[in-house]
Specification:
Strand content: 25-35%
Low-confidence stretches: none
Mean pLDDT: 92
Largest sheet: 13 strands, antiparallel
Helix content: 25-40%
Distance between the termini: 46 Å
Number of domains: 2
Organism: Cytobacillus purgationiresistens
Protein name: Oxalate:formate antiporter
Order of helices and strands: EEHEEEHEHHEEHEEHHEEEHEE
């Protein structure tokens, strides 16, 4: 099994499309997604992948990963797959009920990362459709329930801070700070910015003894993440941030303030 070996991404880009129920993102990886939402995930039907330990469903001719093997998949080098696309499902028996039209739609999803119609199917009761190229670089995820997205994002932000801010104890051992999840109501207040293409720049965050301050910018709609990153570098150098996400270290509470 190939292990992940690339460094943490310290910038998160979010482009929210409520009407079609998906989010395009940069900087959020499958391991982070799975860590947050594992309780909501069942089995995964793999539409594009290079995982070597999946089983095959003979009706759809797609391979799948059972819930019990999700950890193995999360530990694999999914970034190295190139395209990594899946849809979750509840029971394998339900896959055998999928009509040809749905199987064709799934093939199209995995091939183009575009949808012919909203890809939520009562046959398999899926909550997600996960379409990534170079996982963490370009991810397009459909959410049946956007509460899952806000929960995941609220977990990912402090998770990245913990990985970035590693302190040494007196014994010289690495010690991670523990930060609380960002509450959903705060993230909901950022919805307008997310619809305009929002960047959360953890690399530009400010640490003081009393608080952590993370700047947020809006930079527009992007599907090409090279262009997104270039635009962010220009915008962040020339313009003040739109808002800041602030953690009070003493109270362990998050708040948002305008810049």
């Amino acid at each position: 099994m190939k292990k992940r070996n690339h460094s943490i991404r310290d910038l998160i880009y979010i482009l929210l499309n409520e009407q079609d129920q998906y989010v395009i993102s940069y900087g959020i990886e499958f391991t982070e997604f799975t860590y947050s939402l594992s309780d909501s995930m069942n089995n995964l039907l793999l539409l594009k992948h290079h995982f070597e330990e999946g089983d095959i469903n003979m009706h759809t001719m797609f391979e799948y990963v059972s819930r019990d093997d999700l950890k193995k998949l999360a530990e694999d080098d999914v970034y190295g797959y190139g395209d990594f696309c899946w849809i979750d499902f509840e029971e394998e028996e339900s896959l055998n009920e999928l009509p040809g039209q749905v199987i064709a739609e799934l093939l199209y999803l995995g091939h183009t990362k575009e949808h012919l119609r909203k890809p939520f199917y009562n046959y398999i009761r899926n909550r997600f459709v996960y379409l990534a190229h170079d996982d963490g670089w370009f991810n397009k995820v459909f959410y049946r329930d956007f509460n899952d997205f806000y929960q995941m994002l609220g977990d990912v932000i402090p998770g990245k801070l913990e990985q970035m801010k590693v302190e040494k104890s007196l014994l010289g051992l690495k010690k991670k700070k523990s930060y609380p999840a960002v509450p959903k109501d705060l993230l909901l207040s950022l919805k307008k910015l997310m619809k305009e293409g929002m960047v959360i720049s953890l690399n530009n965050c400010e640490h003081t003894r009393s608080r952590i301050s993370i700047p947020l910018w809006t930079i527009g709609d992007f599907a090409n993440m090279d262009d997104m990153y270039e635009e962010f570098e220009v915008t962040s150098a020339q313009n003040q941030c739109e808002a800041k996400l602030i953690l009070d270290k003493k109270t362990k509470e998050w708040q948002i303030v305008s810049c």
